[in-house]
Write the structure tokens for this entry.
Amino acid sequence: MAFDIFLVTAPGLEAQLADEAVAHGFTVTGTIPGGVTVSGGWPEVWRANIALRGAARVLARIAEFRAFHLAQLDKRARKLAWGDVLRPDVAVRVEVSTKKSKIYHARAAAQRIERAITEELGAPISAQAPVALKVRIDDNLVTISVDTSGESLHKRGHKLFTGKAPMRETMAALMLRACEYDGTEPVVDPMCGSGTFVIEAAEIAAGLVPGRDRSFAFEQLATVDAAAVAALRDRPARETDLRFYGSDRDQGAVKGATENAARAGVTALTRFDRAAVSDLHPPEGPPGLVMINPPYGGRIGDRKLLFALYGSLGSVLRDRFAGWRLGLVTDDGGLAKATDLDLEASAPIAHGGLKVKLYRAGPI
Ligand SMILES: C[S@@+](CC[C@H](N)C(=O)[O-])C[C@H]1O[C@@H](n2cnc3c(N)ncnc32)[C@H](O)[C@@H]1O
């Protein structure tokens, strides 16, 4: 039976996530700020978690009903076939949000649902439970979803070194997609930090499954089929001659990125060097994509230095990177302009409490 599966993303990247979902054969039924809805069953839930690079979280909608007061919520919650989805031996936690509804007390609503689960199914309730139910009560309509991911999906299990201002893997993957990167060209990141863009790009080229090395909340549900999940995880990698280059002026970042790449199994495809942007040269071979997330959003006094940095980046790219495309992520349009490159700005994208934009340039 098909149900709604909601793929969560950072507001501003919905179109890229919908695009990735379609490319993976999912049926997209809607896009709202912060996510994309696809339709499917449990096999699609597993596949969305394991195979999509852009989704931050995958929520499976398991029930929807109206409730105008707590007694009604209690009665309807008790009627649900909890055992079809949850296991009596796995702890659960319930998170409720309510909006424009007669039931306005989220904690009281959560308690009713928790009690229905413990008394009807027997599953324990715990704040540290591996399985979370996300309940929305909007206009008196109660929607119950299971968070099938657990830890956010940007945690692929490889990036133990994160550096100062790391980009999330999920966001990096969607930014690469927005730059039309499809795994068939080299990628260079001259301010690579923890190496997120470079490692994502190498994994995409090698056809590695993003969820190959981590666990998911859906593995704790009654619906899981371990053999089917193992088959989704164990896809063979592709051979590629492409190489992916990261550099940074900070030696700690270079070391950390190198170790992250090793954990991700892409050492042979990646190379990290200590270098300042002013010393950047393109690798031998055909042009590809320069992908950068330079420093920004610092203290006011730093902005002057940043203007110089963006300016020097622009001139290095103009002088040495003919034929390469550029994707640059910053929250500061003035700094992007300081590159003096012909850039096209995306809509704003939510990133760690800031609004950034992706600035793209066609072949330089
Ligand atoms: C916002 S962080 C990049 C984070 C990275 N995208 C990640 O996912 O970890 C910016 C990086 O630029 C580096 N950087 C700053 N000025 C530089 C310069 N002149 N040359 C090279 N790297 C520089 C910093 O050391 C820092 O690692």
In short: The radius of gyration is 23 Å. Residues 163, 165-167, 190-191, 193-194, 196, 248-250, 253, 276-277, 293-295, 309 surround S-adenosylmethionine (CB under 6 Å).
